[in-house]
Amino acid sequence: MLKFLSEQSSPILLMIFLIENCLVTLMALFAGWLTQKLTHKLIESPSRNEVLVCITTNLINTFITYAGFKMWQSGFLVFGFNHSWLIVFDFVLLFLVMDLAMYVLHYGIHHTAVYNKIHKFHHYYSHPKPIDLFVLHPLETVSFGVLWLGIISIYVFNFYAVIIYLIINVVFGIAGHLGTEPLSDKTRNSLLFKYLGSSTFHHNHHADINYNYGFYTNIWDRIFKTYKP
């Protein structure tokens, strides 16, 4: 796949990456809609403004994907391609490092003037819905993209671990913006899910912006006393 992409011109690459990002968005929105339907949640139609911002986010993510590919071609990004236990190790490492980095960035945004200028846009609705995952201020989308490229450039992550992480990233993103909780209290309090960021966990953040800044886990919120059950 990477060899095929390396043979394409920049306009073709941008088109491929745009299609990729749009397909991911459509699959994520469909998964969110299906979950809402199965849990009998009142499904709200996105506003025109949300759709336009979602499109803008996809365009920005397309250029971030293109930038990452060019960084790999230039040797600034290096990946491993071995099929071994390192896939699991690298995935867990990337998962936790990104979770911590995004917690710090998210917390910082909420406690500086940046919140009113940029992030408040994402908190326009206290009860999120799936498309709100992609309703971000353009500068915030760029910031998360730069953070992502920066982290994967400082360590040789396994390529397959990166792909798994990207899939999990979308799953958690949609879960956090469902506006409904598909998991029972018993399941969420089980050892397997207790420290993960559930729909309720992130919904509580939208309802009260002083708590629950984590993305994939609530570990950092528990450690830094910003956790709200």
Our Rg estimate from Cα atoms comes to: 18 Å
Mean pLDDT: 87
Which regions have little confidence, pLDDT < 50, spanning 5+ residues? Answer: none
DSSP helical segment count: 10
Provide the helix percentage.
55-70%
Instruction: Kindly state the number of beta strands.
Output: 0
What characterizes the major β-sheet?
A: none
- Please report which band the strand proportion falls in: under 5%, 5-15%, 15-25%, 25-35%, 35-45% or over 45%: under 5%
How many domains? 1
Structural class: mainly alpha
Order of helices and strands: HHHHHHHHHH
- Span between termini: 43 Å
C-alpha geometry: globular
Task: Describe the 3D structure.
There is one protein chain. With 229 residues, this protein is mostly helical. The protein has one domain. It has ten helices and no strands.
List keywords for this structure.
10 helices
Could you give a quick summary of the protein structure above?
The chain has 229 residues and is an all-alpha fold.
Strand and helix map with partners:
Elements: H1 2-6, H2 10-38, H3 48-73, H4 86-110, H5 114-117, H6 138-152, H7 159-176, H8 185-188, H9 199-207, H10 219-223
Helix pairs in contact: 2-3, 2-7, 3-6, 4-6, 4-7, 7-9
